Amino acid sequence: MRDVSFGQYYPSFSAVHKLNPAIKILLSIAYIVAVFLVQPFYFLGFLACFTYIVLVTAVAKLPFFRVIKSIRAILFFVVLSAVIQVFVNKTGSPLWEGGFIYTGGLISAAYIVLRISMIVLGASLLTLTTSPVELADGIEFLLYPLKLIKFPVHEFALIMSIALRFIPTLLDETDRIIKAQKARGADFESKNLFKRAKAMIPVLIPLLISSFRRADELADAMDSRCYSGSKNRTKYKKLTFGWGDLIAALFTAGLIVGVVFLNGVYGVTV
């Protein structure tokens, strides 16, 4: 479980790591929009999105296989969605005479797998290249106008930062509990789905208790340091915008324009 990349930060001194976190959040949203703009039967758009992922990974100096591992966390959901599409979608022509699998179902399944995978890869790049503190600063900066309607922007950003910070911790805790339960004879590798689900109950209960204990300890630590929210707080590092942010924005805008162009002109029908 420690191999799950989503929610973990990979320190480096790359140009991507140095970008303004608010810009990176906006560019990640723009990338997701580009993925959703890809039409069902035109796969060149997905190729453009994958090329974007490869280039950003290379510039950020990230291990490519570590980025790919982020898909493992949602692999079951991806496979389940694809199987449902294969057996439910009856558009197109059957693969064999009287068959129950149609070409439209296969294309739709491939489309869903590619879309979910591209979105997860883009989100993992954001968390791998942006520390939780920077993410909180970026979210707070983007939501600053909501302060006009008395929305607790700082507290919301802090909650998001803490949630991301504790993902690796909870994964380690889960791994420790599973090993402890295995030592007591629990079977997590049984082919019987019900037995595996039953074996997870002794894991979830201690994990839930541990999560509440950590939350309580964190609250006590914040109280002991006189934390009082955003009131009278200053920032040690203020967000600035540079040429790198402009280049990254233009690069992402080029991706969206390219996807729209490929969909409308050079889409390859499968």
Could you characterize the architecture of this molecule?
By secondary structure, the protein is mainly alpha-helical. It folds into two domains: 1-152 and 238-270, no CATH class; 167-229. 65% of the residues lie in helices and 0% in strands. The chain is built from nine helices and no strands. The chain has helices at residues 21-37, 44-59, 64-68, 75-88, 103-129, 132-142, 153-183, 193-224, 243-264. Helix 1 runs antiparallel to helix 5. The mean pLDDT is 79.
Keywords:
flat, mainly alpha, 270 residues, 0% strand, 2 domains
Brief overview, please?
The chain is mainly alpha-helical and 270 residues long.
Helices and strands, with pairings:
Layout: H1 21-37, H2 44-59, H3 64-68, H4 75-88, H5 103-129, H6 132-142, H7 153-183, H8 193-224, H9 243-264
Helix pairs in contact: 1-5, 1-6, 1-9, 2-5, 2-9, 4-5, 6-7, 7-8
